[in-house]
User: Which sequence fits this backbone?
């Protein structure tokens, strides 16, 4: 009798783990101009909801509708200093910190 009770108790507890199964939902974004042929190194969502993509060909910001490209430009002192973006983080003040192969921006 004790073994039957333990069996049913184990069966009952295992049913709860099946109820907790969650499925991931993915949606393909059709964004004109996004560099799908380039390796994406990092993806980050900031506190404003912008999605930032760090690739081997630059930094991209997606706002849900359009994509803005940021690439190194030798003639623009305000451009990013390197196109290979490896990491993106945000500090407590909302500033983005961009890590490339050679720089921390």
Assistant:
């Amino acid at each position: 009798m004790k073994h039957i009770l333990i069996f049913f108790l184990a069966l009952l507890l295992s049913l709860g783990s099946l109820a907790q199964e969650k499925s991931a939902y993915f949606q393909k974004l059709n964004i004109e101009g996004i560099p799908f042929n380039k390796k994406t190194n990092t993806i980050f969502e900031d506190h404003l909801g912008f999605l930032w993509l760090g690739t081997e060909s630059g930094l991209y910001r997606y706002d849900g509708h359009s994509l803005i490209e940021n690439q190194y430009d030798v003639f623009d002192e305000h451009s990013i200093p390197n196109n290979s973006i490896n990491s993106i983080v945000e500090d407590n003040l909302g500033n983005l910190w961009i890590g490339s192969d050679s720089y921390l921006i």
